[in-house]
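Translate sequence into structure tokens.
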Amino acid sequence: MKTYSPKPEHIERSWYVVDASGQVLGRLASEVATLLRGKHKPIFAPHMDTGDHVVVINADKVELSGNKAQNKFAYRHSGYPGGITGVRYADLLATRPVAAVEKAIRGMLPKNRLGRQQIKKLHVVAGAEHPHSAQKPVQLAVGERPTWSGLPAAVPVTRPAGRTGSTSPSSRKSGEAQPVEEGAPSAKGRAPRAAAPKSPTKKRAAAKPAAKKEPAASGAKRSAISKTSAKKPTAKKPAATTSAAKKPTAKKTTAKKSAAKKPTKNEE
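Result follows.
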């Protein structure tokens, strides 16, 4: 199954009206940012703008929890050294309530070109009337998730006309083939042949010639060994004859020399 990725033709943008009277600024900003990003839709993708248009009315009646109205500051910088300016939120809500609400919602959107595109769908007004009645926006309470039925319809799977048989996903995963009845026509229109039973005698007969080849190879090795052993005495025979011939000659010469020396001693 492929991962679904939203396309521009699948995105349907709706219009909603959110009343900010009596709401905490932070909670209001988080709920509106969710609608602007499209996180309430099942086709949400962080890299695309799938959100809806939101109209915030009664921005001048928004509240802050605790002592944030006096202790919290809204800062801005001109870009020059020492150009920072801070305004208390109590003064900001009294003079420019639209800027306070837009600043809180902008801080909860992505800090890139996608966030700059999503903030354009936000429309904040200080009073109860807004100029977007032609879009027919739907009233939405803070924390309420709108129902959405714009998911694209599933595409029916079409199979080729030539294929009639199909295997279940369980059998594909396990690797087991489906049983085929005898005489039933196959997908190509031919009757399957009955598989002949394998006899154990054929396996033994096939194994015998393989066993006979081993002694043949051993016999060849023995014949080669016998040939080499036969050659060895032929090479040793001349060496034995020469040594035997040398020994008697050496003994005869010593005997003659000793016999010749003895008579010389008797003559003296």
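Note: Helices lie at 25-37, 68-71, 89-95, 97-106, 113-118, 169-174, 200-267.
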